[in-house]
Every structure is written in C-alpha cells, then in structure tokens.
C-alpha cells in the first residue's frame, strides 16, 4: 500500500512538472512572437505571396515591368533581391550637379527623377504629372554637401546594379566653389566620357571654368552659361558638333571664324552687322564653316539695319517664314535665301526674342522639312 501511494505521488509530481514547463514554454513563445514576430491583424489574415520562390525567369519578367526607381528600391530590400536585380538593360541618365543634385532616367516617354531636397517632409515622397511626363522621388538631406555625397554614392550604386550611360551632365558652378575640382575629379574617374555638358554659373573665375572644360570629356555638345570675372578666352576642341555660349560679351569675330562646329549659338555678344556680313561672305565663298548646319546670334539693331549692312553685297531671294526653335522666337516677315558657290542653299531668318533681335542661319534645309 505504501509502495502504491509513493508511485501515485511520483506520477503526480511528474505531471505537475510537465504542466509547469509547458506553461513556461508557451509563455516564452507568446513573448517571442510579441517582440520579434508581431504582425497586425490585417497582416495575419493577408496571404503572403512567396515572390522570391518563383522561377528565375518569372522573377525577371516581373522586375522588367518596374520603373527604374522601384527597381532600385527592390534591390535594396535584401541580398537576395540585390542579386536578382542586377540587369544589363541600359539606362540613359542625366546627372545634375546643383545645390541639391538630381539623377534623371531618360528612357521612355516618362522621365524618372531622384532629387535631393532640404525639406524633411518630402523624404521618400513621389510626385508625378502626366502632362509633363515626369515622376520624381525626393530624398532628404540636411545640407547640400551631404546631398552631394549621397548623390555620388547613389550613382555608383545604380552603376553597379544596371547598365548606365550618361547622356548629359549639368554643372552649376555657383553651388560648388569649394568642392568644384573634387567633384570634377570624381566624375572623370567614374564617367570617362559623355555626349553633352551644360555649365552654368555667376561671377566665376575663368581658371575654374577651364578646369571643368579641360578635365571632362564631352563628345558632342557644350553649353556655357557662365558669367566670368575676367574676359572669357575659351579653349574648345573642334571635334564637338555643337557649341552654345549664352554670355558671349567677350566673343570676337576672329574667334567665331576659327571654329568648325556644325551648330553654333552665341547670345549677348557685341558683334555687329558688319561682322555678320564678313561671316556670310566667308561661308558663301567656301572659305570657312564648310560643314555648318545651324548658326544663331543676337544683334542689337533692327531688321532693317541687318538687311542694309549684314546682307550688303550678298545676293538673296525672299523665302518663306521659318518657325523658330522655340515658341518664344517670333518670326520677322520672310527669310533670306542665299546660295553658296558650290550650290548649297541656306535660309537666313530674323526673329524677335524678347527685347533682342536674333538671326539664325539654317544651312541644312532638310532639317526644316
């Protein structure tokens, strides 16, 4: 009897110990779920789609439907996502080195933009306007120096993720006086060449402008809208196809005659109708600018003065009015059709552009058809 009682007592104790340990493990499970695996009721009921367990081909097809901004965000979700996101699809981009920089993806009808901002409330927001065909993702940065650092890191990341081809670099010298050369060196290291460079700035030193021009390799187009302290003496290779100088106060006729680009634009110059007359005669006599396609320059006098002096001793016939490159160009009556000695015809057109009088020479009329 005593033995039977002891056996029952032992069984009871073991049972109690089992219950206690079960309660302890249950409680630990509750705490663990609460701290580490907590989900909202909606998430508990929501079925989870195992995207990363799909076949590789299916995953690639889904990723190909993402816009570049979503594609980059997906790649940062995990190491697996990063491996899956590496693509060879080429993206054409524009890099804007401004106070708060931007990267623009130019593929397709919609322009996708990542822009840094000083407004904390805009962090992570996206804005789009269908009628302007752009979609912007904002990234907050406390100041422009931090923004520039993040901008460079972001570019290097997307360059490692996808095939990136720089189409245009926009450089605002006014914002980077202290770090201009450092940024130039960094860009030169990571982008050996690109087609187009736009440089803007106010009251800059010529040596700083030339550091940009001499150390970056732009292959097709250069636009300079820089107000320099000293007279501007530019050293630009003739291998470019297009040159546009917006503040051309120091541009001379001799400098223009030395250029061989196909497309030339000069604004705010002090060139005269007499200078244009020399330029036109040189082209007609096949002495210079043999491959010229388009030439634009501003004049300070009237259309009548241009006809009397700029076209002096130049045979021409009146042609149709030609539309300007932008709606702000208002045509002034008809065009002046002149013929080069080898038979090639050019159309000289006069436009009113705000308070100025502009002349454009269309030397390849097929572009107007």
Automatic annotation (TrEMBL):
Residues 51-90 form the F-box domain. The chain crosses the membrane at residues 12-36. It holds the Pfam family F-box. InterPro entries: F-box_dom, F-box_Sdz-33. Keywords: Membrane, Transmembrane, Transmembrane helix. The keyword Protein biosynthesis does not apply. Residues 239-297 form the Sdz-33 F-box domain. The keyword Transmembrane helix applies. It comes from the Eukaryota. This is F-box domain-containing protein. It comes from Caenorhabditis nigoni. The lineage of its organism: Eukaryota, Metazoa, Ecdysozoa, Nematoda, Chromadorea.
